[in-house]
């Protein structure tokens, strides 16, 4: 038995609704923006490089497209084979701010990135690691909530991903909002005088 108290985020989505001002603060212009993040580990190297190849194809259809590829702290950028016209960053503090202003995100299927994007109401494409039990569980939650678009790395190609990116840019997110006040919940629900354990995860 448990009481689901909501998800815990390091931000309040209500504070990030002025996307135009936040874009200027982060140094972005009005061009279509795609943010790619692979969780900061080397296992995402192949996905990041595929997104780099995708960028060239998608930019042929949308010349003003801006793609930011975030390698993270554990994947050196000098190990990546990416087109010079793509913006590559080794580490981005407060990545959720960049998610908040993007027109589309491409991420792995980890809980942090996908649920932050869901809470922020941004469209995203996610690639769960195939055979990874935790990310399979996250994918089930996302499918149930109707959040994001799932793709498989084993069947994806730069051309297929570029087609999906172009079709999703500018789309509206219609999935229901998720509870974001988990950190503020005191977990004081009691039954028969005994404390009830409150978890921050959902089955």
Helicity range: 25-40%
Q: Overall pLDDT, averaged? A: 86
Low-confidence stretches: 188-203
Order of helices and strands: EHEHEEHEHEHEHEEE
Percentage beta strand: 15-25%
Biggest sheet record: 6 strands, parallel
CATH topology: Rossmann fold
Overall radius of gyration? 18 Å
Molecular structure report:
- With 203 residues, the protein is of the alpha/beta class.
- The protein has a single domain (13-175), classed as Rossmann fold (3-Layer(aba) Sandwich).
- It has six helices and ten strands; from the N terminus they run βαβαββαβαβαβαβββ.
- The strands form three sheets. The protein has a six-stranded parallel beta sheet, with helices on both faces. Strands 1-10 form a two-stranded parallel ribbon.
- It is globular.
- The protein starts with a strand and ends with a strand.
- Mean pLDDT is 86; it is low at 188-203.
Give me a quick take on this structure.
By secondary structure, the chain is of the alpha/beta class. The protein contains 6 helices and 10 strands, in the order E-H-E-H-E-E-H-E-H-E-H-E-H-E-E-E.
Key phrases:
single chain, 203 residues, alpha/beta, Rossmann fold, 6-stranded parallel beta sheet, two-stranded parallel ribbon, 6 helices, 16% strand
Helices and strands in order, then pairings?
Elements: E1 3-4, H1 19-26, E2 33-37, H2 45-61, E3 66-70, E4 87-89, H3 95-101, E5 104-108, H4 111-120, E6 124-127, H5 133-145, E7 149-150, H6 158-168, E8 190-191, E9 194-195, E10 198-199
Parallel strand pairs: 1-10, 2-3, 2-5, 3-4, 5-6, 6-7
Antiparallel strand pairs: 8-9
Helix pairs in contact: 1-3, 2-6
């Amino acid at each position: 038995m448990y009481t689901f108290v909501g998800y815990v985020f390091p931000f309040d989505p209500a504070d990030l609704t002025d996307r135009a001002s936040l874009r200027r603060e982060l140094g972005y212009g009005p061009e279509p923006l795609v943010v790619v993040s692979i969780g900061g580990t080397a296992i995402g190297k192949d996905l990041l490089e595929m997104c780099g190849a995708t960028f060239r194809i998608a930019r042929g259809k949308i010349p003003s497209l801006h793609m930011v590829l975030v390698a993270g702290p554990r994947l050196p950028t000098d190990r990546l084979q990416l087109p010079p016209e793509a913006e590559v960053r080794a580490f981005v503090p407060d990545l959720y701010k960049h998610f908040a202003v993007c027109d589309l995100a491409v991420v792995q299927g980890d809980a942090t990135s996908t649920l932050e994007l869901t809470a922020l109401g941004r469209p995203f494409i996610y690639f769960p690691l195939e055979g990874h039990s935790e990310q399979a569980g996250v994918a089930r939650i996302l499918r149930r909530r109707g959040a994001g678009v799932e793709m498989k790395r084993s069947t994806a190609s730069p051309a297929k991903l570029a087609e999906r990116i172009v079709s999703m840019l500018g789309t509206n997110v219609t999935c229901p909002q998720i509870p974001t006040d988990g950190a503020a919940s005191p977990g004081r629900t009691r039954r028969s005088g005994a404390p009830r354990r409150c978890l921050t995860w959902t089955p």
